[in-house]
Amino acid sequence: MEIEVREPRTEQELNLYYDLRWRILREPWTSTRESARDEHEADAIHLIALQGGNLLGVGRLHFNSPEEAQVRYMAVENGHRGAGIGGLVIDTLEARAQQAGATRVVLNAREDAIPFYARHGYELIGRIVTPFDAVIHWRMKKDLPPVKKPTILTSA
Known about the structure:
Number of domains: 1
Distance between the termini: 52 Å
Largest sheet: 7 strands, mixed
Helix content: 10-25%
CATH class: Alpha Beta
Structural class: alpha+beta
Strand content: 25-35%
CATH superfamily: Gcn5-related N-acetyltransferase (GNAT)
Number of strands: 7
CATH topology: Aminopeptidase
CATH architecture: 3-Layer(aba) Sandwich
């Protein structure tokens, strides 16, 4: 069955999106659901990965500057990792960043996610401190190729 990656369309999909983010990324360290949200929610691109109506993955993109986009809150439902869902989400987020003119994407990866991001072309920059320092995070980046603009041929 095909996996569809798109923005949430309904209030229910958005609620499921935030629930998955919290359960996978924050619940082991805090019961505060608000910790899975930040000041960039309103101006970010939120994506969900659905298969047969089931939400299996999420990811978010916001812009630190016109040139730099940041991926945050990547999560895949337990039991579905390794099936290509995260790859579809990150590829779609990168395409959206590129379409908006970004030349690089940065993210903060948990140690166990470094191999995933490395397979998608990200390189390590260095360790960072996070609110939940029980989970070590590393800053990673990927340079994006410029968007090719169509050539307009004119006759002389």
